[in-house]
Amino acid sequence: MFLLGSLKSQTKIAPWRVVIRTLKVSVVGAGGGIGQPLSLLIRRSPGIDELALHDLSEMKGIAADLSHVSQEGKVIGFTGEVELEPALSGADVVVVAAGMPRLPGMLRDQLMAANGSVAVKVATAVSNACPGALLAFITNPINMIVPTAAEVLKAHGAYDPRRLFGITTLDVVRSKKFIGDAMKISPDKVNIPVIGGHAGITILPLISQCQPEFKGGREDVQKMTHRIQEAGTEVVNAKAGKGSATLSMAFAGAHFVDSLLRGIGGQEGIIECAFVASELTEAPFIASLLELGKYGIKRYLPLPPMSVNEKEAFEKLLPVLKQNANEGIDFARKSL
Ligand code: LMR
């Protein structure tokens, strides 16, 4: 049964919706390097009646600041663990940017010790405060955090695989930008699925499926794939100890939240790549192409065709995803 987020009256009119109910979006980790620009960009999505900003540090100032942007709806700040459930109460979409970033030399997996508890706490709070919400994580390591959250939601009887997402949009955003630049066309004109996961070799841009066609030899494809897979590390190294991607991540996260909202609003044909529970492969969680709808995932698109090299890379990433899922599930079980 779907427990659709707060079942509110159908009143609002927005350009891409005819008549819809009111909407609440909650951002967890809204005071951080990703959370602040993410919250600002989410303000641009039409039809949000309440934007709830939560963080462990004082949120009054950031909420007051953002509430002056000339957009419809109110912005409310919530501070500390005690205000997590009030921040989420009745939310339709919860997006989580809380957690520690990588430092140079670290792998995303190494963040699990610090960030696993974020997944546990937020999934528990979602189960209590807004069990019908669409829940989307930016927090790394995505490949483990999403399975952890799934397990916690299951334990609280609030799990629906169609409503839980790991946001991998930044891999698509980067692919569009790098390929667009290489082909001397606008990134907006580039369409490419990125499947697998969100760490190292699990990030698999299907360059063979790029539209327009990526014109390059085998070596160019390999270089481009490697650049996309290591783009997060490129930023971590460039920031030299001051964190990881925040602005491009906020751009990608806001795009994904907007797509979730468009789906909720009944817009047809919203296709995104995201990391979700899935029966498409032997890995229980994987990033693939999805159609979004009123209740989250409306349809799992089949895996796209792959070149011989992509198939080989795909076979290599599946055991990594399975291992990551097991680690995430174990973490949840130990925490419950
Ligand atoms: C990214 O891809 O930029 C993020 O996952 C952050 C990171 O640690 O690389």
UniProtKB/TrEMBL annotation:
<keyword id="KW-0560">Oxidoreductase</keyword>
<dbReference type="InterPro" id="IPR036291">
    <property type="entry name" value="NAD(P)-bd_dom_sf"/>
</dbReference>
<comment type="similarity">
    <text>Belongs to the LDH/MDH superfamily. MDH type 1 family.</text>
</comment>
<dbReference type="InterPro" id="IPR001236">
    <property type="entry name" value="Lactate/malate_DH_N"/>
</dbReference>
<feature type="domain" description="Lactate/malate dehydrogenase C-terminal">
    <location>
        <begin position="168"/>
        <end position="331"/>
    </location>
</feature>
<dbReference type="InterPro" id="IPR001557">
    <property type="entry name" value="L-lactate/malate_DH"/>
</dbReference>
<feature type="domain" description="Lactate/malate dehydrogenase N-terminal">
    <location>
        <begin position="24"/>
        <end position="166"/>
    </location>
</feature>
<keyword id="KW-0816">Tricarboxylic acid cycle</keyword>
<dbReference type="Pfam" id="PF00056">
    <property type="entry name" value="Ldh_1_N"/>
</dbReference>
<dbReference type="Pfam" id="PF02866">
    <property type="entry name" value="Ldh_1_C"/>
</dbReference>
<keyword id="KW-0520">NAD</keyword>
<dbReference type="InterPro" id="IPR022383">
    <property type="entry name" value="Lactate/malate_DH_C"/>
</dbReference>
<protein>
    <recommendedName>
        <fullName>Malate dehydrogenase</fullName>
        <ecNumber>1.1.1.37</ecNumber>
    </recommendedName>
</protein>
<dbReference type="InterPro" id="IPR001252">
    <property type="entry name" value="Malate_DH_AS"/>
</dbReference>
<dbReference type="InterPro" id="IPR015955">
    <property type="entry name" value="Lactate_DH/Glyco_Ohase_4_C"/>
</dbReference>
<dbReference type="InterPro" id="IPR010097">
    <property type="entry name" value="Malate_DH_type1"/>
</dbReference>
<comment type="subunit">
    <text>Homodimer.</text>
</comment>
